[in-house]
Amino acid sequence: MTWSLNIISRKQFLQRLCDDRDARSDKNFVLVDLRRNDHKGGMIHGSVNLPAETLYPAIPFLHRLFAAAEIDKVVWYCGSSRGRAPRAAGWFDDYLRDKGDMSMKSCVLVGGIKGWACAGPEYVRMMNKYEISAWRDDSMN
């Protein structure tokens, strides 16, 4: 069986964050920052930092925690969302499928934190501890 990864665009997620900030919707999602050694330059408002290296064994606990909180979407991101985030989203999605949980979705934030931080001021305003020096072209290598 083949499956495709669920994704959410920066624009879609920014809208969801803004809606939640204005209290027009319930916060029924969790945003997970998977960075560890490369955790620099800030993070998106409301993110929790769960380094990818320690994630896999914690998936059953996270599922129980998220289900108890009535979370319907788990959004994963890393530096670029091309490595750790798709892997984490896939692991969590596999777990959801194994449990038959169709009420929760696992998805990847397109572009990761690098895409977010470099997308413009409306995105930067939605970051905690933003450090401009971390996002200059010469420091992103």
* Model regions low in confidence, pLDDT < 50 over at least 5 residues: none
Within the largest sheet, what's the order of strands?
A: 1-6-5-2-4
CA-to-CA gap between the ends?
37 Å
Strand proportion, as a percent range, falls in: 15-25%
Protein structure class: alpha/beta
Helix content: 25-40%
Describe the overall structure.
It is a single chain. With 141 residues, the protein is of the alpha/beta class. It has helices at residues 10-21, 59-68, 84-99, 112-117, 121-124, and strands spanning 6-8, 29-33, 43-44, 47-49, 73-77, 105-109, 127-128. It has a 5-stranded parallel beta sheet with strand order 1-6-5-2-4. Strand 5, helix 3 (84-99) and strand 6 (105-109) form a beta-alpha-beta unit. The protein is globular and about 45 Å long. The relative contact order is 0.21.
